[in-house]
């Protein structure tokens, strides 16, 4: 896929936001543990990605109702849905001055066309040493749903079936989707939110 940056200014992908709050003390402490000056940008992206993918649970996978939204809350809870995990990965990488944006897919709810659609969030990261963007999906791996760090070809958990109405959006956004953020902030049940409340398209 040919990715399209919403902004030509890489600095727009480094901004701190209310839900990408990388100045929060818990995120500072975590980045101090994750990173060192000896690591290059590719190593840092891989470390951050695998940390959020593997150490932060996907709330739906663990049958949890919690719906954290802010990056700091996702880190403190140790879980979140895809939108929340994307906020945390963006916060961690932006704290290291690595431009990180937000991408979306339109997917069937629970993989079933009869359930309708919901947006799914992932990240795009600009790696300075490679001078290009790559997409990474830190939702968390489970059987049949696998995402990996790759700077060559994308290895994403989901491949939308556009013939059936699913969609892969090419835009790399500087901010997370505002409608999705509003839903996360007011929701108290992750499963109900996923099935009934998330936006179905951009």
Question: What can you tell me about this protein's structure?
Answer:
This protein is α/β, with parallel strands linked by helices and 202 residues long. The chain has helices at 25-34, 41-55, 71-77, 82-94, 178-186, 190-197; strands at residues 4-5, 57-58, 79-80, 100-108, 117-127, 132-136, 167-168, 171-172. Strands 6-5-4-7 form a 4-stranded antiparallel beta sheet. Helix 2 (41-55) runs antiparallel to helix 4 and helix 3 (71-77) crosses helix 4 (82-94). The longest helix is centred in the N-terminal third of the chain and has 15 residues, at 41-55. The model has no long low-confidence stretch (mean pLDDT 97).
Shape: globular
Q: What series of H and E elements makes up the topology?
A: EHHEHEHEEEEEHH
What share of residues are in beta strands? 15-25%
Please give the count of helices. 6
Strand order of the largest sheet: 6-5-4-7
Return residue spans where pLDDT drops below 50 for at least 5 consecutive residues: none
- Beginning-to-end CA distance, first to last residue: 18 Å
Task: Give a quick account of the main beta sheet: strands, pairing sense, barrel closure.
Answer: 4 strands, antiparallel
Number of strands: 8
- Average pLDDT: 97
Helix coverage percent: 25-40%
**Which class do the helix and strand fractions yield?**
alpha/beta
User: What is the gyration radius calculated from CA atoms?
Assistant: 16 Å
Quick description:
This protein is an alpha/beta fold. It contains 6 helices and 8 strands; from the N terminus they run βααβαβαβββββαα. A 4-stranded antiparallel sheet has the order 6-5-4-7. A two-stranded parallel sheet has the order 1-8.
């Amino acid at each position: 896929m040919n990715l399209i940056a919403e902004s030509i200014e890489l600095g727009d992908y480094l901004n701190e936001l209310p839900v990408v709050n990388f100045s929060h003390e818990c995120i500072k402490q975590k980045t101090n543990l994750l990173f060192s000056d000896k690591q290059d940008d590719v190593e840092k992206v891989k470390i951050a990605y695998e940390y959020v993918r593997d150490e932060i649970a996907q709330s739906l996978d663990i049958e949890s109702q919690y719906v954290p939204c802010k990056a700091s809350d996702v880190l403190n809870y140790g879980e979140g849905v895809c939108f929340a995990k994307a906020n945390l990965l963006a916060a961690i990488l932006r704290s290291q001055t690595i431009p990180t944006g937000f991408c979306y897919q339109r997917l069937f709810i629970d993989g079933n066309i009869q359930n309708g659609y919901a947006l799914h969030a992932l990240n795009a990261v600009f790696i300075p040493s490679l001078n290009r963007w790559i997409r990474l999906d830190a939702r968390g791996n489970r059987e049949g749903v696998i995402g990996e760090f790759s700077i060559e070809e994308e290895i994403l958990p989901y491949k939308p079936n556009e013939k059936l109405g699913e969609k892969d959006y090419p835009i790399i956004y500087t901010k997370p989707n505002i409608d999705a953020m509003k839903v996360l902030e007011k929701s108290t049940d992750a499963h109900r939110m996923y099935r009934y409340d998330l936006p179905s398209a951009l």
